Amino acid sequence: MASRGGPRAAGTDGSDFQHRERVASHYQMSVTLKSEIKKLIYTHVVIWLLLLAQMCVGHLKLLPHDQVAMPYQWEYPYLLSILPSLLGLLSFPRNNISYLVLSMISTGLFSVAPLIYGAMEMFPMAQQLYRHGKAYRFIFGFSAVSVMYLVVVVAAQVHGWQLYYSKKLLDSWFTSTQEKKKK
């Protein structure tokens, strides 16, 4: 390498610094995964707000019952699903592994479990709609069970990808932690 005032080292033209300017792959992966998880969390917040609005409108009777149906039982515990998302967001600034692990565990408990219960709770009504064409609950003219199954499918995908990316992020953080301990 070149020194400030002296000659260059033998065998170099001063352009061999490029390899030292690359960011380690696990740091690049961490930034990318955090970005993807944030997008999924914001999508989850939109779903959560829509369910909260439906519950408020249903209970406060702001619209007629034939416009917005009362919420299903699975929607109440699903409201707690905002907590894992907040834990996930709190884990990002300092790469806090324990918050991320708590977020992943509570996502299963507060997000995925109510969705599974919801799919089972609404199955008889979906079956009745499919077999007989009868729906008794409506959301703005659409069958409530159809709308809510759509919500369940989208939310399950959001939470599934969120768990997948969180696991990859956790692995990335463990890689960087192990490399720091080796030094």
Automatic annotation (TrEMBL):
InterPro entries: Jagunal (IPR009787). It is a multi-pass membrane protein. GO terms for cellular component: endoplasmic reticulum membrane. Keywords: Endoplasmic reticulum, Membrane, Transmembrane, Transmembrane helix. It holds the Pfam family Jagunal. The chain crosses the membrane at residues 40-62, 99-118, 138-158. The keyword Protease does not apply. It is found in: Endoplasmic reticulum membrane. Its main location: endoplasmic reticulum. The keyword Endoplasmic reticulum applies. GO terms for biological process: endoplasmic reticulum organization; granulocyte colony-stimulating factor signaling pathway; vesicle-mediated transport. PANTHER family: PROTEIN JAGUNAL HOMOLOG 1. Belongs to the jagunal family. This is Protein jagunal homolog 1. The lineage of its organism: Eukaryota, Metazoa, Chordata, Craniata, Vertebrata. The gene is Jagn1.
